[in-house]
Amino acid sequence: MKTASILKQLMQAHRENAYQLAERSGVPQPTIHRILSGEHAEPRSSTLRKLAQCYGLTESHLRGDLVYSIQHIEGVGVAVQASEVVYGEFARIATLDTLKTDASQSVVSMDIRQSWLEKHVGLPASQLRLMTCCDSDMSPTLSPGDLLLLDVSTQEKQSEGIFLVSVNSNLKLRRFRITLSGQVEMSCDNPAIRAVDNPLKIRGLVVVGRVCHTWQSRGGT
C-alpha cells in the first residue's frame, strides 16, 4: 500500500483527481484507481515512471525508496521537494539567492527530471531558480502560494511576459507588454491595481528573471 499512499498524498497536494492525473500522465484512469485501491500492489515500472514524471519525481519516490516531503502553505500542498540524492538525469533547482532566508518561501529546492525541463521549459537548470508567489499583485494569473520557476539569465526589459523585478531592493512580480506603438508597459494583472509604468523609465529597476513555469497551489499544476 506504500505506493497507493504516496500517490494519494501527491494527488491531494496538487488538488487533482484520477481523471486529471490520467490526462496528464497518459496512464489509463482504471489503472490509477487500481493503484490507489491497492489492487495493483506492484505496478509496472513504466506506469510508475509516467506518474512520477507528473510531479518531477522518480519511480523510486513512488515506491517509497527515496524520501520526499510535501510543503504546505495554509494547509494546501504547493510543491514536492525531492530527496537530497540527485541522479544524472535530475537537476536540482534552488530558491533564488535573495530569498533563501525569507520565511515566506515554502520550498528550498526541487530535483526535477532534466528531460522534463527540456520538454516544458527548454532551458538548462543553471539558468533556473525557484520562488513562491507571496502576494496578489498578479491575481488571478498567479496566487499566493504558487511556486514559480524563473529564468534568471535574462535582464531584458523590452520583451513580454511576467517578470520578477527589483526596485530599490524590493522584489515585485509584474507583467511586461509591448504596445502597438512599440512602448514597454509594466503592470499588475490584478484589476484592483491600476498602475501602469514604463520599466525603462524607473530608476533603480532591475529585472531579476522571467517566470517560465508555474505550479499552482490550488487547482493542479
UniProtKB/TrEMBL annotation:
Q: Which UniProt keywords apply?
A: DNA-binding, Transcription, Transcription regulation
Pfam families named among the record's database cross-references? HTH_3 (PF01381)
SMART domains registered for this protein in UniProt: HTH_XRE
Q: Which residues form the HTH cro/C1-type domain?
A: 7-62
User: What CDD domains does the database record attribute to this sequence?
Assistant: HTH_XRE, S24_LexA-like
List, alphabetically, the InterPro entries matched: Cro/C1-type_HTH, Lambda_DNA-bd_dom_sf, LexA-like, LexA/Signal_pep-like_sf
The source's superkingdom equals Bacteria
**What protein name does the entry list?**
HTH cro/C1-type domain-containing protein
* Species, as recorded: Limnobacter litoralis
